[in-house]
Design a protein that fits this description.
Layout (H helix, E strand, L loop, with lengths): L17 E5 L4 H17 L2 E8 L3 H5 L4 H22 L8 E7 L2 H11 L4 E5 L6 H4 L2 H8 L4 E4 L1
Parallel strand pairs: 1-2, 1-4, 2-3, 4-5
Protein name: UspA domain-containing protein
Pfam family, one: Usp
InterPro entries: Rossmann-like_a/b/a_fold, Universal_stress_UspA, UspA
Length: 153
């Protein structure tokens, strides 16, 4: 008796196919990107680099050009990735995409990981002291329990 199964998304069966890494320009996020890049290269996975643009209502209310600033950060991150990719061509080849999402970092990374069907999520350790009390993005992602999460110091 033959049973046919419709092709469904299956997470983590043959190694990761999509690795999401959150970047915001901080040193720890850039270390996370380097780590995730090495993992993606070794696993022949797609590296999805995600920048979550903050939505700052109070800054916008005061007339601050928040959207322009976060767009500049995103453009700078893409430029850094392209430069690193070019410098390492033939030595360290990895398939990558850059995505931007708007919102708070946890919600943005969660949405990115869901939409991109991530097999793993990599983030840098928080560099903010207050996160010991409230909980960092990394801790919240781990507690969500939806993907393997690697936290890079």
């Amino acid at each position: 008796m033959t049973e046919q199964h419709a092709h469904q998304f299956e997470r983590g069966t043959d190694g990761p196919k999509v690795i999401v890494v959150g970047v915001d320009g901080s040193d720890s996020s850039l270390r996370a990107a380097a780590y995730a890049g090495g993992l993606a290269r070794r696993q022949h996975a797609l590296l999805a680099v995600v920048y979550v643009q903050p939505v700052i209502a109070s800054g916008a209310a005061l007339g601050a050009p928040v959207a322009e600033t976060t767009d500049e950060i995103a453009e700078d991150l893409v430029a850094q990735i392209r430069l690193a990719t070019e410098q390492n061509k033939g030595i360290f080849d990895v398939r990558w995409e850059f995505h931007t999402f708007r919102g708070d970092p946890y919600s943005g990374l969660t949405k990115a990981a869901d939409e991109l069907k991530a097999d793993a999520v990599v983030v840098g350790a928080s560099e903010q002291a207050g996160h010991r009390i409230v909980g960092s993005v990394a801790v919240r992602l781990v507690k969500a329990g939806r993907w393997p999460v690697t936290v890079v110091p």
